[in-house]
Amino acid sequence: MKLFRGLRPLRSATALRDALAGVVMAAMDIPQVLGYSKIAGMPVVTGLYSLFLPLVAFAAFGSSRYMVVAADSATAAIFAGGVAGAATPASAQYIALAGIVAVLTAAILLLARVLRLAFIADFLSRTVLVGFLTGVGLQVGISVLSEMLGVAVDSRRPVIELWEVLRGLPHAHLPTVALAASVLTFVLLLRRFAPKVPGALVAVVAAIAASAEWDFAGHGIATIGPVVGGLPHLALAGLLSLRTMSWQEVELLLTVSASCAVMILTQSAATSRIYAAKHYETVDENLELYGLSAANAAAALSGGFVVNGSPTQTAMMEGAGGRSQLAQVTTAVVVGAVLLFLTGPLQLLPTCVLGAMVFMVALRLIDFAELRNIRAESPQEYALAVMTAAVVILVGVEEGIVLAMVVSLARVVRHGYHPHSGVLQANPDGSWKLVPIAPHVVTEPGLVLYRFGAELYYANAGRFLEEVSHVVQPMPSSVKWVVVDAEAMTHMDYTAARILKRLKANLDQAGVKLAFARVPWDLRSDFDRHQVTDVIGPSRIFNRLHDAIAAFEASEKSPEA
Q1: For 212-225, how does the pLDDT look when each residue is reduced to its tens digit (9 = 90+)?
Q2: How far apart (Å, rounded) are the C-alpha atoms in residues 529 and 542?
Q3: Least packed by Cβ within 10 Å: which of 89, 267, 504, 559?
Q4: Alpha-carbon distance 258 to 57, whole Å?
């Protein structure tokens, strides 16, 4: 395996540009990952850890030149929702659980690489993914309202927490509210009128300076408190606690890790594809799994939490001018310097300002434009997106990702079970149109060209039998030939073959001939293997629809044919 594929070829002409992009990326992303650590329930410094060794590990083992692998809001929320109640957030036990989940996620991703399972990412539809991230955004946004308003809450369940916030509004701490609102307004205005300025970083630095100058903590504005300085200690001590865990606890962590792995597969594959296509490069998604696995192992080793291929951070890196993983490595170097020398001032950062940063992350997770598009183009899919978001909010993030996978796969199965089918009829210009199946609907007197738009297998073979039987009704039938347009039928299994033989026998009894046209080579192989070719008769399998029509018309002129 070649290391540092994403840096090669390393040219002096572009190295300075990438290094400067890495510095800009660090300035933009440091405040953001502090927010991600808040979402995950981890100590603030662990957000910085996710921008250190994981970036270097992915640069070493991944293949994408552009993708940034670091802390991400979706996986942070999945982790926090999955282990909620198992330990106190930010405690030593909680940090150990984060390390275990990260290393289990790394193992699952490595197994996925060995088994070449990157294609699983294709089975989480965009519709339900938008719904899932909307639910995560709403949940995350609700979770920080209490900090932005200075209101005490007890529950961690979004709906109850929102009710407690609303009930506590009369007791909101006005200086905290004013500071949070000022930060939100400032950052949003900069994003609107000066998008290249790292508004979040400016806001954080200004808030820390103001906190030091005017003693925010002494005026009732909560601050995040002491932050551990220095580079992370490399250890996997948390894994030792696995030996003392019950099977139920291990099962919980495996489930959370699998949910994180699915999200990582999906978002990382989409991100790497988008930027590879944009820059006319190729990407091996299975090879990317090495890098993603290594990055999560590095997160576990350095006391962090699960990391992901982040679309937003990748966009930030590309916007800063980064064109190789050298930019990401430079970001890691800058973060290392921050860990060594600049963690002290972080303890003065007001909690409400960090909450405001998280709130903006939550807003970005809710893709209002895409939701409007889905609603306009496909109301049924919009209902699925809303249902997925509701499950995330009302039940949990982990259950939401499971539902997203189940619903996406169910839609795939449904399309195969209920394919587009009908009777082909000729238009005046010679093209074909597909009309719904009904008695007396024919292609021409005595002939039905029936199209079935999917492979034939055990689940939909019964529907195939019913529809073909329906086109020859009522009995005695005026239909003499049924020709199946098999262009879309790329496969047939054992059960379907038996049903097809039964259909042939039923049509023979009714005096109707069964034929096939446009049979793909792989379906023809299935026909031969299951002896369907002999039952239908080789002379009733045609290369083209027009050949089948000509054979029918010849049989009408010569009934013995």
Answers
A1: 999 999 989 999 98
A2: 18
A3: 559
A4: 21
- Token look-up 């808030």 returns 207
Distance of CA 541 to the CA centre of its chain: 43
Strands 432-435 and 308-309: unpaired
**Of the candidates 258, 260, 279, 278, the residue with the CA atom closest to the CA atom of residue 268:** 260
Quote the CA–CA distance of 191 and 520 in Å, as a whole number: 54
d(CA 363, CA 134): 9
Ordered by where they begin, the domains of the chain are 13-413 (no CATH), 421-557 (3.30.750.24)
- In this structure, what token pair is assigned to residue 430? 């010679």
The predicted-structure confidence for 230-261, as pLDDT tens digits, reads as follows: 999 887 756 666 667 778 888 999 999 999 99
Distance CA(57)–CA(3), nearest Å, equals 10
Please give the model's pTM, rounded to 2 decimal places: 0.77
Confirm if 299 and 101 have CB atoms less than 8 A apart.
Answer: no
Q: Is 4 left (phi over 0), alpha (psi -120 to 50) or beta?
A: left
Retrieve residue 546's tokens. 């027009």
Question: Which three-class secondary structure state does DSSP give residue 485?
Answer: strand
Alpha-carbon distance of 528 to 443, in angstroms, equals 28
Residue 561 has pLDDT above 60, yes or no: no
Terminal Cα-to-Cα distance of the chain (whole angstroms): 64
Q: Given 3-state DSSP classes, what are the helix, strand and coil percentages for the chain, each rounded to the nearest 5?
A: 65, 5, 25
Q: What is the torsional sign of CA 103, 104, 108, 109?
A: negative
In this structure, what DSSP letter does residue 168 have?
Answer: T
User: Is the peptide bond preceding residue 379 cis, with omega within 30 degrees of 0?
Assistant: no
Say if residue 426 is exposed, middle or buried (CB neighbours under 10 Å; 0-12, 13-18, 19+): middle
Other beta carbons within 10 Å of 114 = 9
